[in-house]
Amino acid sequence: MKNLIRIIPIIILVAGILLAQEREPGKTVTNQEQKLFIPSNMPLGMAFDGRVLWVSDIKEKRITGYDFEVRKITYSNLVKAPGLRDIAFWKVYLISPFQKHLWVIDPITGNIVEKIYIKELKDPTSIAANGDMLYIYDRGYNRFFRYSMSSRRIVGSFPLQITPEEDDTLYLRGATWFGNAIWVTEKNNHLFKINPENGEKLSFLPIPDKTFSVEFIDGQLFSASPDMVETLEFSETEYYITSKRNDFRVHLDYTVSPPWLEGQQKNEKTLDICFNSMRMNPQQNYSTYDNNGVSLKIKRYHEGELRFCGNFKDNLKKQNGHFSTAITLRATVYILNSASIEQYFRFHDLPAYPRFYIRLEDFRPEMVNRMKELLKLWKAEHDGTHPYLAIPFLQEQNITDLQERIIFFRLLEIPAREAVFYHTKEKYQKGFLQLYFHPVGWVTVTDLYQYRYPREFPISEYHLEFYYPETLTVFPDVLVKDNEGNLKKVVLTREDKANILKWVNIQLQAND
């Protein structure tokens, strides 16, 4: 009878696993935010068995189980072991590394059912399981070890290819397996996605402060902090990864000052001004929009941009306009991983629209010539390499002027432009370098860009991308008379365009 009572909970666990396996892959049980109060001090490990979420508190050496079927804590046991670290689920047990050992733990009772000695380990902290294969991170070596539970031996290892923060030590916490990759948290509020073949960082997510571990449950990402387990918004593709979310309605006032003189007004049939704004992309989405004041027509343009156009033939006075739209911003990191870099070299055909941003006609000849000289040095050192390396190269050469950077990339035949962003938290406008790298698309070198991670392009959930100065065009050209009375074309500079279109009084409003 005692044996029967002892076996029943394990049967329940196995049934939960089978139910989980029958669910359609990638589908979530619920998309609603969840917050679970699970008492813990340092929840370094989480593992899901198909029904119960297990949380390991390394300070108290306690395993706590939250049952999603009954939606409450059903197990809480002290583990009878010298120490406890991260946990992974294997068959009906939990496995935790500690010093040169693996503890195989019965989660129902907290008893150690097997103690595995591994002489190759030194100071293991994190563990992820893919079937019978365990991936154990040892901070003493800064390596992941592959350990086979079938053969009970180490079957390989690889270094972690991540550069730590300046003047800091890389400290990894809880790990898990999802989507054929290792996901591991780090104390500086990063969640790294790691290639299980070579330790390459495929991408990363910014995560909340004091996150000790993560776990994927039916496609949803859960994070554990002291006393709390909660869902994190998260999505990824081969080229980018997004998390966090910022929803609001934005109101933008703007003024348009036509640049033509009255004499030209009489001789032209139309006087048109156009510009592009509010690009829709994975980091930024808008739903509905309103435009009042200036009689500008709006239509969707290439790359999800809105194209504003108006005829000012009958009114050359400064005119005011107001634009508003509901916005969703997400923290986004665009990634140039090994696969996307390989695709860049294999397929380099650019769509027609980005090719517009290879033009050099509107830049001062002396700036173009200066960048041509620098291009010779680049080709001598980096010819044949991916052009993302030109970003740190320009930094090394102390080229900080945005226009010079744009010229340099265009000389490399890389579409480049200025994109003006508004920081919704700090309340400032700033122009950033934006580059088009096939097959990823437009990436932005914001002030979050770090030169020691040259293939990652992060944008925060507070960065609103709303304007591209070069897209401001006037038709026909502005004409003025020279000293001899002859008409000549005025080449509009960045400053001229800034006087034609001004964005003012940007306000944010909470969504209804």
**Shape assignment:** elongated
The total beta strand count reads 36
Question: Which regions contain 5 or more consecutive residues with pLDDT less than 50?
Answer: 1-30
In DSSP terms (H or I, runs of 4 or more residues), the helix count works out at 8
Helix-residue proportion: 10-25%
Rg from alpha-carbon coordinates: 29 Å
Major β-sheet annotation: 6 strands, antiparallel
- Cα separation of the termini: 60 Å
As a percent range, the share of strand residues is: 35-45%
What does this molecule look like?
The structure is a single chain. A hairpin with a 3-residue loop joins strand 2 (about 45-50) and strand 3. This protein is α+β, with helices and mostly antiparallel strands and about 500 residues long.
List keywords for this structure.
four-stranded antiparallel beta sheet, six-stranded antiparallel beta sheet, 512 residues, alpha+beta
In short:
With 512 residues, this protein is α+β, with helices and mostly antiparallel strands. 16% of the residues lie in helices and 44% in strands. Strand 14 and strand 15 form a beta hairpin.
Layout: helices, strands, pairs:
Blueprint: H1 2-22, E1 35-37, E2 43-48, E3 52-57, E4 62-67, E5 72-78, E6 88-90, E7 93-98, E8 101-105, E9 112-117, E10 124-130, E11 133-138, E12 143-148, E13 153-159, E14 172-178, E15 181-186, E16 190-194, E17 201-206, E18 213-217, E19 220-225, E20 228-232, E21 234-236, E22 240-256, H2 262-267, E23 272-277, E24 284-292, E25 297-300, E26 306-311, E27 319-335, H3 338-346, H4 352-355, H5 365-382, H6 390-396, H7 402-411, E28 416-423, E29 428-437, E30 441-445, E31 456-459, E32 463-467, E33 473-475, E34 479-481, E35 487-489, H8 494-500, E36 501-509
Antiparallel strand pairs: 1-20, 2-3, 3-4, 4-5, 6-7, 7-8, 8-9, 10-11, 11-12, 12-13, 14-15, 15-16, 16-17, 18-19, 19-20, 21-22, 22-27, 22-36, 23-26, 23-33, 24-27, 25-26, 27-31, 28-29, 28-32, 29-30, 34-35
